[in-house]
What we know:
- The protein has helices at residues 2-9, 15-25, 30-38, 46-65, 73-96.
- It is built from five helices and no strands.
- It has one domain (2-96).
Amino acid sequence: MQDLFSMLNALHRPRLLMRAARLGSQEYRRSGHLPRLLGYGVLPRHAAAILKLMEIEADLEDKRKVADDSYSIVRHVDVLIAIVGEARELRAAQGAT
């Protein structure tokens, strides 16, 4: 699990994006956010969800950097909110065990 947290710590994005994600993560609700981002069905465990979200986010980051017309800042922030929210829940779950 520590490798996952190392990957998260290595994620560097513009301050404004991360600030919006941190603020939005205060209202993060797994049951509402994840199905919209990952598809409906059984929700994955926290670590699996984070890995999938990081793949989606990396694609969005690439599009942002090259100013791709299909880039959506709203979706980018939404994915970052989910990453921050899932990381918080994973840390809380690890602390409870």
